Amino acid sequence: MMSSLDATGIVAGYGAADEILKGVDFNVRSGEICCIIGPNGAGKSTLLKTIAGLLKPKAGKVSLDGLDITGQLPRDIARRGLAYVPQEHNVFPTLSVRENLEIGGYVDTENIGARIDQTLQRFPVLASKRRHAARALSGGERQMLAMAMALMVKPGVLLLDEPSAGLSPVAAEALFDAIVEIGREGMAIGIVEQNAIEALAISHRAYILVDGRNSRTGDAKALAADPDVRRLFLGV
C-alpha cells in the first residue's frame, strides 16, 4: 500500500501556555525511512505524539494519504493506517507474545490468527517465544514485539519513538536491520532516535529539530557527512 504522511506548521505542547513545537514540518513517503534527530527537549517525541493523535496541535495540519487527520482520536488514526510505537510502556508485560499481538490487531479482528502467523514469520525470535510472557523477553525482543504489534494493523506509515533506547549494541543492530527490511517492503517509516549516527545510516532523509523548530532537513547521508552536523549533533 502506497502511503504518505505530511505534517505542516505543527504547533503543540502539553499545556495552554506551553509551546514545545513552534511550527514544525515533517513528511515521509512509501518505502522511505526518515529520522528525526536533535538535542533533548527539541520536541522530537512531541511531534510523533501529535501526529499520532495523543496531543492535539494548536496550529498546523497532519495529512495521511491526502486526508486531513489533524486532532483525530488515536484509534481512528490507527484505523486509517498509521501505527505509532512509543518509547516506553509499549507492550503488556504479563501477557504472552501471542496475546500482545492479538491486542495489536484490535482495530481489525478479521483473520487475526493468520495475521499473527504472518507477523511471527517476520520475527522468528518472537515465534519461538510466542507463549512466553512479554516481561520474560530481553529488551531487544520487547522492542521487536512492540513493533510487531504495530504491524498487526497493516499500517502504511510506522512511527517509532526511540526504538533503540536502552538496548545493547547487538540488540540495537538487529532492530535497525528489521526496520530497514520493513522499509524495503514499501512502508513509510519515521523514527525519532538518540542514536543519531545509526539513524542517519539507515535513513533516506533526516530532520534536525532544535528548540521546537526545523533546523536542517535533507539527505541523511549528506547531513551525516556535514562537519557542522557532526560537531553539533553527532559528537564526532
Short structural description:
The chain is an alpha/beta fold. Helix content is about 35%, strand content about 25%.
Arithmetic mean pLDDT: 91
Count of strand segments: 10
Sheet with most strands: strand arrangement: 6-7-8-3-9-10
Low-confidence stretches: none
Assigned CATH class of one domain: Alpha Beta
Distance between the termini: 39 Å
**CATH superfamily annotation of one domain:** P-loop containing nucleotide triphosphate hydrolases
- H-E order: EEEHEEHEHHHHEHEHEEHH
Gross CATH architecture of one domain:
3-Layer(aba) Sandwich
Cα-atom Rg, whole angstroms?
A: 17 Å
List the helices and strands and how they pair.
Blueprint: E1 4-12, E2 21-29, E3 33-37, H1 44-51, E4 59-64, E5 67-68, H2 74-79, E6 82-85, H3 97-104, H4 112-122, H5 124-127, H6 139-151, E7 157-161, H7 169-184, E8 188-192, H8 196-202, E9 205-210, E10 213-219, H9 220-225, H10 227-234
Parallel strand pairs: 3-8, 3-9, 6-7, 7-8
Antiparallel strand pairs: 1-2, 1-4, 4-5, 9-10
